[in-house]
């Protein structure tokens, strides 16, 4: 999505907290250890739960859904940035992953 602020996984600040907008089954399978989960499908109903981070780094599986969320948040005045390549890029670079329920983490 053109015109959306974007950052590569390699350029994320070390203390960046990700807002993961994937659906619950994707989150459960594997996510960044410090990420916060707010599914895209629930975003508008849960806007009050958005973290106060500035900027807000938004991630999904590959970057498409998060780009749409960033465009929406930017229109609402939030300083959001899309994480290019999403969790696939994150995992591909060997960044940490955790899963729920004691299973081996994976990006689905």
The number of E-state strands comes to 5
Look at the structure and name the CATH superfamily.
Rhodanese-like domain
Report the CATH C-level class: Alpha Beta
**What is the mean pLDDT?**
94
The rounded distance between the terminal residues' Cα atoms is 22 Å
- Might you state the CATH topology name? Oxidized Rhodanese, domain 1
Q: Provide the spatial order of strands within the biggest beta sheet.
A: 1-5-4-2-3
> What is the makeup of the main sheet?
5 strands, parallel
SS-based structural class?
alpha/beta
Question: Per the principal axes of the C-alpha atoms, what is the gross shape?
Answer: globular
Unreliable segments of 5+ consecutive residues: none
Estimated radius of gyration: 13 Å
Taken as a percent bin, the fraction of beta residues is 15-25%
Number of domains: 1
Number of helices: 3
Written as H for each helix and E for each strand, in order along the chain, the element string is EEHEEHEH
Named at the architecture level, the CATH assignment is 3-Layer(aba) Sandwich
Protein name: Rhodanese-like domain-containing protein
Domain Rhodanese: 12-99
InterPro entries: GlpE_sulfurtransferase, Rhodanese-like_dom, Rhodanese-like_dom_sf
């Amino acid at each position: 999505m053109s015109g959306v602020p974007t950052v590569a996984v390699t350029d994320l600040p070390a203390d960046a907290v990700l807002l993961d907008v994937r659906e619950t089954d994707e989150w459960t399978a594997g996510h960044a250890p410090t990420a916060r989960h707010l599914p895209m499908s629930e975003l508008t109903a849960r806007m009050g739960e958005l973290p106060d981070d500035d900027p807000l780094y938004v991630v999904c599986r590959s970057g498409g859904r998060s780009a749409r969320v960033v465009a929406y948040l930017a229109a609402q005045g939030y300083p959001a940035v899309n994480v290019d390549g999403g969790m696939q890029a994150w995992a591909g670079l060997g960044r940490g992953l955790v899963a729920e329920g004691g299973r081996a983490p994976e990006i689905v």
